[in-house]
Amino acid sequence: MSGQLPGLPPPSPIPLKDRASLVFVEHARLDVMDGAFVAVNADGTRTQIPVGGLAGIMLEPGARISHAAVALASRVGTLITWVGEGGVRLYSAGQPGGARSDRLLWQAAIALDDAARLRVVRKMFEMRFGEDAPQRRSIDQLRGIEGVRVRETYALLARQHGVTWKRRAYDPRDWEASDVPNRCLSAATSCLHGLAEAAVLAAGYAPAIGFLHSGKPRSFVYDIADLYKLETVVPEAFRIAGKAAKGKLDMAPDRAVRLACRDIFRKTGLLSRIIPAIEEVLSAGALPRPEPPPEAVPVAFEEPGSGDEGHLG
Prior knowledge:
The protein is an alpha/beta fold. The protein contains nine helices and eight strands. It has helices at residues 67-75, 101-112, 114-129, 139-160, 180-202, 219-229, 233-245, 253-268, 270-283, and strands at 20-25, 29-33, 36-40, 46-48, 54-59, 64-65, 79-83, 90-93. α5 crosses α8 (253-268).
């Protein structure tokens, strides 16, 4: 992103739905040089990164970032996250929480109301599987039903792509300990979680306040990501794992998965779908939304209906 020219107003942030998804960076230093956001490689060469056109940047081990780069990413509303190898573990996010308390209060009120929370979970089931959730089921029972369906989908995709599949198992502290299919799934879900977290924060909600998931720093991120997981990144993970098993990959499987996820995000227009889905999910709780106080932070991205209200402007 180039620096501001003299006499011109500062550029307006690009709405999240119009951005590219994610960039992973490893073994490079991110900085602002000559007004541009760049990755500086070990040999001194630079790669310019259009930071204002991205939903998020994920920093893997070996990556460093300057104060100026963090400040620029914050100004344009691009999420910076620090992740483990393969993106399988999140250490920190550059802009936690939202700038607008009215949406946070609405989300928290729904989560604290047992009936409203169940309505939200049932809505997520409907959106994920295209059918109504079974009647007279608790949240724990619905979670169990979803788990069975996910495992069945994994087994079906493994058969379709000729992948030897036992079960979902990985150790975030030891990336290489997992088999290739599990590493592919971890890389794929990491991409989706990064995109979903950027959307949750941009819309002004709290990643930790979940409905089906709970008790984790990214519970709501997992809730939202799960709406799209089986239709987007999971099939790509098994497709890449199948190619790896046949010796048809010319790169590491986790890199191939990331490239495939980037393409499927663009093909499905996923960024443009996530924020409206968040609103639809929470509206199912049927609780009134609090009005923002007069002193509330203004909407960061001035576009009617964009929903990108949570990033600090």
